[in-house]
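To illustrate this point, what follows is a protein record of this kind.

___
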Amino acid sequence: MSTGSAPSAVVITPKALLAHWQGHRRLTRRVIEAFPEDQLFSFSVGAMRPFGGLAMEMISMAAPMVRGIVTGEWDQSVTREARPKQEVLRLWDESTQQIDTLWPQIPPERFQETMTAFGQYKGVVCDMLLYVIDNEIHHRGQGYVYLRALGIEPPPFYERH
């Protein structure tokens, strides 16, 4: 057994992590699209929040997290209130474009730095980004349950193109 320090290894590049996340975002967008307008902010199962509120939570976290990592400014101006599905999709698309624009501005060493997001969540940048991605996957799973309960076949989870 070696007692020297192990060389650091990159498991995934920032570019590959972004591509992975954007694949999830494309799939989540299709889940939003699948919801009937009148059920997006009203239907729930087992006392869980309606999917429209979950989608707005994802929007309020994604681009603002990346922007905060780049600039140190933590904007929480996107509210989670109910709105028409087309507006949710528009905000989703704007958020996706913002992520694509901001992501290349993250210096590679920043992914291992500790920051405090939104004035209260202290953590390593890479871990905070993984949390936002995991949160989206979790909430999309709730959306799948809702769609199935409504008799709607959700998009295949493995199609992220």
